[in-house]
Write a structure and sequence with these properties.
CATH class: Alpha Beta
Strand order of the largest sheet: 1-2-3-4-5-6-7-8
CATH architecture: Alpha-Beta Barrel
Number of helices: 12
Number of domains: 1
């Protein structure tokens, strides 16, 4: 069996915009429902959702039944051991939060890659885990470096100061702008739509594109998502499973209990 081609990595390298959904319910049952919708990618959140390695594996298995989707996982921290564990589960594309410097980005690149004879490899530990289908992909160790995809999150003032160097780090495939943490770092806690924050986001998208890498972002505002796509964002999450459930159940109750005192949020949560 041949090591699968990372379709998401290929698409963003060819400047084909990919539309995704953020998943924080930490459940394979709901993950399968989301996979049926037909998004290009689904993100399993290991940073802010109650996931562990086993629950992530179960969601990967559920998503795999619907091959139109590409499963991405966000690790809780850009640590070599954690990255190795997620890759061994069979995740081809990882999103690493809080990458503030090119040095940290380079360490994440090394963690993503196996050592190679040409000296251009990394420090990923060898294992016959699910990623190689327990050896059923016989050339996985030699082919994996070309198929893994590293997305790093720039979500602080410091990250913006180093953004050009981060984006130009060899082995970084895309840079995701985290609106919530970025807004807090810029002094606008809870207000990612502040004009200063939005200006910083737009500038960041342009700088990432200039480096030849893929910009990404999350927003549940349809008009805003289309705006980011028009600016050249190449992987855009347009909703969150948790937010969809909260909003839709609250809206349904309001139809039958208008005096229930439930206030529907006017803006969506972002990361």
């Amino acid at each position: 069996m041949k090591t699968p081609v990372n379709r998401f990595k290929k698409a963003i390298s060819e400047k084909q915009a990919q539309i995704g959904l953020w998943m924080g319910l930490a459940n394979s049952y709901s993950a399968e429902m989301c996979a049926m919708a037909g998004f290009d990618w689904l993100l399993v959140d290991g940073e802010h959702a109650p996931n562990n390695l086993q629950s992530i594996q179960q969601q990967l298995q559920a998503i795999a039944a619907y091959p139109a989707n590409h499963a991405i996982a966000r690790v809780p921290v850009g640590d070599t051991v954690v990255i190795k564990q997620y890759l061994d589960l069979g995740v081809e594309t990882l999103l690493v939060p809080m990458v503030d410097t090119p040095e940290h980005a380079a360490l994440c690149v090394q963690a993503m890659r196996y050592p190679q004879d040409d000296g251009k490899g990394g420090v990923r530990g060898m294992a016959g885990a699910r990623a190689s289908r327990w050896g059923m992909f016989p050339n996985y160790a030699k082919e994996a470096n070309d198929q893994v995809c590293l997305l790093v999150q720039a979500e602080s003032r410091e990250a913006l100061n180093h953004l050009d160097a981060i984006a130009n780090t060899p082995g970084v495939d895309g840079v995701f702008i985290g609106p919530a943490d970025l807004s807090a770092s810029l002094g606008y806690v809870g207000n990612p739509n502040h004009p200063d924050v939005q200006a910083a986001i737009e500038d960041a998208i342009a700088r990432i594109l200039k480096a030849g890498k893929a910009p990404g972002i999350l927003t549940s505002d349809e008009a805003q998502a289309k705006h980011y796509l028009s600016l050249g964002a190449l992987f855009v999450a347009v909703g969150l499973d948790t937010q969809i459930l909260v909003r839709q159940t609250a809206a349904l109750v309001k139809k039958f209990k208008p005096n229930a005192g439930i206030e529907l949020p006017t803006t969506g949560q972002v990361y």
